[in-house]
Design goal:
By secondary structure, the chain is of the alpha+beta class. It is built from 4 helices and 5 strands; from the N terminus they run βααββββαα. Strands 1-5-4-3-2 form a 5-stranded antiparallel β-sheet. Strand 2 and strand 3 form a beta hairpin. Helix 1 crosses helix 4. The longest helix has 18 residues. It is globular. The N and C termini lie far apart (about 30 Å).
Length: about 150
């Protein structure tokens, strides 16, 4: 099941940003590639334990190239949306922002929120995503599919 983008009831959690010294088109290409491999697909056991939909934890629910890419998902403890926004950065390059909206229903959701948001694991993960996209966009082979 692919989560719905239009969930206005998802409260705002936070925003993180990174300026990347690469053109917006390159950052967009890298972000799309990154989004295709993000999430619990690397750790399928986590997706099963959480009851994630989709199993990877994220599905693309909105795409407005090269300015906005929204991912969403849900599991036993949360419904969430992670929206990446790209804009030209002052002085050159690309400003990449990650906005998180999520709801954590019930007691189990509150405990999960404390574990993920309260411990700053979410901050580390989100910043890690931004930096991974930034590193790939700045690599000499950015946007080029690896040879097999």
């Amino acid at each position: 099941m692919i989560p719905r983008m239009a969930e206005p009831d998802l409260p705002y959690v936070d925003t993180h940003a990174l300026t990347i010294g690469a053109p917006i088109e390159r950052v967009w290409t890298v972000l799309e590639d990154y989004a295709a491999t993000i999430g619990a697909a690397k750790t399928p056991m986590l997706g099963r334990v959480l009851g994630a939909e989709p199993m990877s934890g994220f599905a693309v629910v909105h795409r407005d190239a090269p300015h906005q890419l929204a991912l969403a998902g849900r599991h036993r403890f949360s419904r969430y949306r992670l929206t990446f926004e790209l804009d030209p950065a002052p002085g050159g390059g690309t400003l990449l922002r990650a906005l998180t909206h999520a709801v954590f229903p019930g007691v189990r959701g509150a405990v999960y929120r404390a574990l993920v948001i309260g411990t700053r694991l979410h901050v580390l993960a989100t910043r890690g995503m931004l930096h991974a996209v930034g590193r790939r966009a700045m690599a000499p082979t950015a946007g080029v599919a690896p040879s097999t």
